[in-house]
Design brief:
With 449 residues, this protein is an alpha+beta fold. The chain contains 9 helices and 8 strands. It starts with a helix and ends with a helix.
């Protein structure tokens, strides 16, 4: 008994440990881990999977309409007041010229029938089966587009969280330095060795930085909630990021991507435009098929019983069988131009789809070149922002020294600090732009090789 208890306790301990590890892994992500998690749990991705399953079911639903269909019918009638017919009285030995009322049949009846129907030829069915393949392809491509959009959304949300976190750290550092400067300047002023304006200038700067810090803290919480939402997690769930902004931006600098081979058939928007073209083609074929005859066959088997009282479940009840074999042939002869007009409209829609496909191809190629240019610009701006930040830090440091030695005014110090703060924000934003612009380019290229 004691050994069993220890075994159960050990298993529970292991289970708790595994659960805690799973929670920890779930709440801490690299960018790639966040993307992989979102592809399984994002709300749009989940529904896109359902749409794909629905398309497969719809394909079979269409195919099944041309396969044998069996229906069964059971009916029961009880004539509460049976109809009366009149027959010449002489048939029953009566007086000629008079009529005798008579009731035919029995008051109650039951029927059971099974019907097998089989479609032999229907042009619209053939086109419909072909069209389901195109629709399934569209659903698959739509799922792929949703995945790409989820990947892009997660990348942007992940970068925004890192941006907010870095902003908080920078504002906290700037605030600490300003508080130190303000304390020292206030002491100097109180000892009669400085002017009141210097204190006031620092107070203005500190107040502004403090407000920016509070806003950055709020944005950090909001961006984390947005990331959770994109990943398919409840927004209140605590989430941690394993990467920092600078390292992630460095990883996204990949000039080889600019030289990678571009196959437009891999682009998901081109695939969807092709699907639209296929859809219009099958709509045109469907319109043409309406001029063809349709042929169906059927065979039924039934049994009927009649009685004055309800005893149809009795083994003594007699049933009478019947069966029919038949064919239905429908030939369209004249529609006053309705079919030809519908076919012409479908042909026009097909030609429009071809034009849209050509336009889509040109737009995608333009987007590719624009995206490459934006990616290069983002990298250049990142390098420039990094250099400018180093310069701004040196300028601000020199002004700090000059100010402490009385060689620079509080206005000059504040100007140098403001320049540094702007450079810091531009540097952070430039890293996010590198990450986002690379994702945009990868989305267009969508190279699966």
């Amino acid at each position: 008994m004691r050994n069993s208890f220890l075994t159960v306790l050990a298993l529970c301990t292991i289970s708790i440990g595994i659960s805690q590890e799973e929670v920890s892994n779930t709440n801490s992500f690299t960018l790639q881990e966040a993307i992989e998690f979102a592809l399984k749990n994002n709300y749009s991705a989940i529904n896109a999977d359902r749409d794909l399953i629905d398309a497969k079911k719809q394909k079979w639903e269409t195919i099944a309409t041309g396969l044998p269909q069996i229906t069964g019918d059971v009916s029961y009638q009880n004539q509460l007041k049976q109809p009366v017919s009149l027959i010449p009285a002489e048939f029953a030995g009566g007086e000629p010229g008079t009529f005798v009322p008579i009731i035919f049949g029995q008051a109650q009846s039951a029927n059971a029938t099974a019907v097998l129907r089989q479609q032999i030829f229907d042009g619209s069915y053939i086109v419909g089966v072909q069209a389901t393949k195109a629709f399934l392809s569209y659903s698959q491509n739509n799922k792929e587009k949703t995945d790409l959009e989820v990947r892009k959304a997660v990348t942007e949300a992940y970068g925004n969280v890192l941006l907010a976190e870095e902003s908080v750290l920078i504002f906290e550092k700037n605030k600490a330095n300003l508080e130190k400067n303000l304390f020292e300047t206030t002491k100097i002023y109180e000892n009669g060795l400085g002017d009141e304006e210097s204190v006031e200038q620092l107070q203005i700067t500190l107040s502004s930085v403090d407000n920016q810090l509070k806003n950055a803290i709020r944005l950090k919480d909001i961006t984390l909630q947005m990331l959770n939402l994109v990943m398919g997690i409840t927004i209140e769930t605590p989430t941690q990021l394993k990467e920092n902004l600078d390292d992630l931006a460095q990883k996204q600098i990949e000039f080889g991507l600019l030289e990678s081979e571009f196959n437009i058939e891999n682009n998901v928007d081109f695939k969807l435009a092709t699907n639209l073209n296929q859809q219009r083609y099958y709509e045109w074929k469907l319109a043409r098929s309406r001029a063809l005859p349709t042929l169906n066959s059927f065979i039924n088997y039934g049994s009927s019983a009649f009685a004055d009282d309800f005893n149809f479940l009795s083994g003594d009840q007699k049933w009478f069988d019947s069966s029919v074999l038949g064919f239905d042939l429908s030939i369209p002869l004249f529609s006053s131009g309705k079919r030809s007009a519908g076919t012409a409209r479908a042909k026009i829609a097909l030609e429009k789809a071809k034009t849209q496909l050509t336009e889509a191809e040109e737009q995608i190629r333009l987007q590719l070149e624009s995206s490459k240019s934006n990616y290069v610009l983002a990298i250049e701006q990142y390098e420039t922002a990094k250099d400018n930040l180093n310069l701004a830090e040196r300028i601000e440091n020199k002004n700090q020294i000059k100010y402490s030695e009385g060689l620079a005014s509080s206005f000059e110090l504040r100007q140098a600090q403001t320049q540094l703060y702007d450079a810091q924000q531009r540097y952070l934003q430039s890293m996010v732009e590198v990450i986002n612009k690379k994702t945009e380019l990868e989305t267009i290229i969508n190279n699966k090789s």
